[in-house]
Amino acid sequence: MHFVRWRKRICNTTATLLDLEIIVKFVTFIVNFDLYSFSTLSLCLLPCLHPFDHPLRAWHYNAMIRNDILRRLRYALGLDDQTVIQIIALGQEPTAPVPTSEILAAWYLKEEEPSFEPMPAKALLAFLDGLILHYRGPRTDGPGAVVATTNLNNNTVLKKIRIALSLQEDDLLEIMKLAGFAVSKNELTALFRKPGQRNYVECMDQFLRNFLVGLALYRQQPKN
After folding, report:
1. Of 11-15, 53-57, 150-154, 200-204, highest mean pLDDT
2. Is the C or the N end of the chain the one with fewer CB within 10 Å?
3. How many helices (H) and strands (E) does the chain have?
């Protein structure tokens, strides 16, 4: 009897935790809470479950984090570590510390690897802004090409990559086609609208992941 009672209590507690995680995920979606922080919270809520025993845990493992973006961009653009460090230095404040090769190595690791370190949002922003300066140089005909922002989301990442590589609409459509991801011109335009504008659409992880895959294939094509 005692065993049955304890089993019921454990089941009730687990159900409560599952409900709590669903609520947290919903709130995260609404307020655009930092994805890596939520992922960490998700792991704390359900440490006893196998990673794929619950759909939300599978969602955690499929979600893109800042480290994924750095790894995929580095591969797509064929950048070595020294160039990555130089690009980050270009995009950050002059007094900010420049990451070392050891720090980069920790950022390149997968989450489950012992020496993994999450890439800070400021570092990824510096890398993206540095890409613009690296490929296009500073503007001399008006305000700089780098627009300061504190809202790092997938739309921001997509916009900054587009600016850095001078990608036109046809280029973007070709990139998505190479990745096997169908998208219309209207759908593409909606991703580059400002939040709050009519028809603005949030860029989801699946789209950004496919874009980075397609970008690597696009850059490998022979130049005309």
Report:
1. 200-204
2. C
3. 11, 0
The token duo for 29 is 């979606």
- Say what the pTM is: 0.69
For the chain, how big is the Rg over CA atoms in Å?
A: 20
How far apart, in whole angstroms, are the C-alpha atoms of residue 121 and residue 149? 11
Of the candidates 54, 23, 24, the one whose C-alpha atom is nearest the C-alpha of residue 39 is: 24
Asked if the model's pLDDT at residue 45 lies above 90, the reply is no
Q: What is the DSSP letter of 159?
A: H
Q: What is the pLDDT of residue 148?
A: 53
- Could you tell me if 74 and 105 are in contact, meaning their C-beta atoms sit under 8 angstroms apart? no
Distance from the first to the final alpha carbon of the chain: 77
| Token pair recorded at residue 195 | 């939040």
How many angstroms separate the CA atoms of 51 and 57, rounded?
Answer: 5
The pair of three-digit structure tokens given for residue 5, joined into one six-digit string: 């009672």
Domain assignments of the chain as residue spans, ordered by start: 2-62, 66-220
**Euclidean distance between CA atoms 62 and 21, whole angstroms:** 16
Q: Where are the beta strands (DSSP E) in 65-118?
A: none
- Helices 66-77/121-136 angle, 10° precision: 20
Q: How far does Cα 202 stand from its chain's mean position? A: 13
